[in-house]
Amino acid sequence: MSTVEAPRRALVIRGGWEGHAPVETTDLFLPFLREQGFDVTVSDSLDAYLDADALAATDLIVQCWTMGEITQEQSAGLADAVRAGTGLAGWHGGICDAFRAHTGYQWLTGGQFVMHPAEWLDHTVDVLPERADHPVLAGLPGRIPLHTEQYLVHTAPDVEVLATTTFAADDPGVPDEARGVTCPAVWTRRWGGGRVFVSTIGHKLDDLTDPTVRTLTERGLLWAAR
């Protein structure tokens, strides 16, 4: 009998709005996943969520699909797979600005994009001190400086917030209703037997190549994986 363990399986789902460069950004992480022992499959179709047998054998789903539409059957297939133990992870609009009209999907991910100021802003993502030893964050700086889109999101009450971002109180580029507001920027959650990781960072390619952001994202993928 062979004692060699089968590799874990990762499914990368990418598509939707091209402004978030779904191919280029996911390509950044394919070598990392393979180095971590994953057998990686890439799909440009949400119909991958209809293959229950394949999803049951998948340890991690990485989704980068901004906006677009998902059918009830596709969404249910994804949610059922995560509930059974398959991990789900992603960044920015590819996971929390997907399928805006589908509240069931938003419940699964634990949050949904609401707005961002029209211009890219200097801002920080701030690690919550009480979460600083979380496996996704351990040893990373407590403040991550960024010049990019700053997402305001609505989140479910049961997510585990790891880091937040605060909108400037006096920046004319920030809508009045968002000034001074602090909201989640990185979170995790459990969905049945599965784990979900969401980071709002990653509007453009160089956001994700920042060493701290890349490390945070890679760790989030591993944390979510079965």
From TrEMBL:
It comes from the Bacteria. Pfam families: ThuA. InterPro entries: Class_I_gatase-like, ThuA-like. Residues 9-224 form the ThuA-like domain. This is ThuA domain-containing protein. It comes from Streptomyces triticirhizae.
